[in-house]
């Protein structure tokens, strides 16, 4: 069953999602607004690897980056550039460019995101932030927002054996490392991409909520297995309460 929610006041009660104890939230596009910095950082990385901006090759690679928002960035670059050395070079250039943009004050919280996390924690839930970026970039974002102490745990692909989304590894790492839940069905996952949804579904999470503040639309989120589609993460606390929390 998919419950679509466009406003916090329109939450529809679902069944079968009781006793959520652990919430795993994506960052860029879900809790963090970055204003298209992924594409800007990709352009910088592509230039370093000799991909001519405005070329057909550049356009095709950028389209792939857009289509795979939410996936581990090193996995994206392995697909785009083939051999491991070039993929690693592209990833380093991307992370450097993204970090510089973050340091330039180009990011902000999604409206209501911090408050939502605080509500979830006040309700007794454990909250984890996850990302497809490398740890250095994740830390730069956390520092820029003053979020270092906001949640119990933050995870990047390297913290889960190196595999990012759409694999379930980061969700399962959160489950194992926090000890907050006894059953994977007590996990709620929220994200803005199809890759977030697939990761949540594959982990066995009881709630897999897509949000409409980022890369993918409601149809893409639903097709990838979202149990709910929300206007933003700000609606998640009310959804979980209505779901029998």
TrEMBL record:
GO terms for biological process: DNA repair. One of its GO terms (molecular function) is phosphoglycolate phosphatase activity. InterPro entries: HAD-like_hydrolase_sf (IPR050155), HAD-like_sf (IPR036412), HAD_sf (IPR023214), PhnX-like (IPR022468). Gene3D superfamilies: HAD superfamily/HAD-like (3.40.50.1000). Pfam families: Hydrolase (PF00702). GO terms for cellular component: cytosol. It comes from Streptomyces alboflavus. This is Haloacid dehalogenase.
């Amino acid at each position: 069953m998919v419950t679509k929610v466009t406003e916090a006041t329109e939450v529809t009660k679902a069944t079968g999602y009781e006793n959520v104890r652990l919430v795993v939230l994506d960052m860029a596009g879900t809790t963090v607004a970055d204003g298209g910095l992924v594409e800007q950082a990709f352009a910088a990385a592509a230039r370093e690897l000799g991909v001519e901006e405005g070329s057909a090759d550049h356009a095709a690679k950028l389209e792939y980056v857009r289509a795979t928002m939410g996936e581990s960035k090193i996995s994206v670059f392995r697909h785009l550039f083939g051999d491991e050395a070039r993929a690693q070079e592209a990833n380093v250039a991307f992370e450097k460019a993204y970090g510089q943009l973050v340091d330039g004050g180009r990011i902000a919280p999604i409206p209501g995101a911090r408050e939502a996390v605080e509500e979830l924690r006040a309700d007794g839930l454990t909250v984890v932030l996850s990302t497809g970026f490398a740890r250095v970039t994740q830390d730069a974002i956390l520092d820029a927002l003053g979020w270092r102490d906001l949640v119990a745990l933050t995870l990047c692909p390297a913290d889960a054996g190196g595999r990012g989304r759409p694999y379930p590894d980061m969700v399962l790492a959160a489950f194992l490392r926090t000890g907050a839940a006894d059953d994977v069905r007590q996990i709620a996952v929220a994200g803005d991409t199809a890759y977030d949804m697939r990761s949540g579904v594959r982990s066995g999470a009881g709630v897999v909520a897509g949000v409409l503040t980022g890369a993918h639309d409601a149809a893409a989120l639903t097709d990838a297995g979202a149990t709910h589609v929300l206007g933003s993460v700000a609606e998640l606390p009310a959804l979980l309460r209505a779901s029998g929390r």
